[in-house]
Amino acid sequence: QDARLYEEWKWFRCPTLVEVLEEFPSVALPPALLLSHLPLLQPRHYSVSSAPGPSPAEIHLTVAVVTYHSQDGQGPLHYGVCSSWLARLQPGDTVPAFIRGAPSFRLPPDPEAPCLLVGPGTGVAPFRSFWQHRLHQLRAGGGPLGRMVLVFGCRSSALDHIYRQEMAEAQEAGALSQVLTAFSREPGTPK
């Protein structure tokens, strides 16, 4: 009866529907009614993290598998719906997907134009395709390239800097001019 208490309970607990029904067994819903009122699962949008030139028959995604405990880390373990499903796939499994274009998010048409790529904790996936494209241009004998500086942040250099080696190779080849990183959860370093 107290909307504020309900909101606090909801945000602290983050319960799944099953957990709500288990906590309140007096709520007896006929399965048909329940299923007819559940919203459809919304599509998950991921950035393509590969360029078509170096891998024309493939599309790469960079996906973090989401797991978390509610109730300040003391509650039950929750799993990301799509990321957990993707992590369980086996080679050859079919993935229902679609491509949604982003016509304004692309490299400039002039390869000599300088580029500043900034990913402040939002992920490095879409920028990977940019340095892969530039690297492919260089290997195909393309002309001079403008400076490309990547600034990106994530939580931990040990866990989240997954393209470290690839970035270093792109820098060595001249596809990336500079990589500037920021890590928010490094052991022994203030946030």
Quick overview:
The protein has helices at residues 3-13, 17-23, 31-37, 81-87, 125-139, 157-160, 164-173, and strands spanning 67-69, 77-79, 115-120, 148-154, 178-183.
Topology, please?
Layout: H1 3-13, H2 17-23, H3 31-37, E1 67-69, E2 77-79, H4 81-87, E3 115-120, H5 125-139, E4 148-154, H6 157-160, H7 164-173, E5 178-183
Parallel strand pairs: 3-4, 4-5
Antiparallel strand pairs: 1-2
Word description of this protein:
The chain is α/β, with parallel strands linked by helices. Among the domains are: 1-38, no CATH class; 115-183, 3-Layer(aba) Sandwich (Rossmann fold). 32% of the residues lie in helices and 13% in strands. It is built from 7 helices and 5 strands; from the N terminus they run H-H-H-E-E-H-E-H-E-H-H-E. The strands form 2 sheets. It has a 3-stranded parallel beta sheet, with no helix packed on it. Strands 1-2 form a two-stranded antiparallel sheet. A hairpin with a 7-residue loop joins strand 1 and strand 2 (77-79).
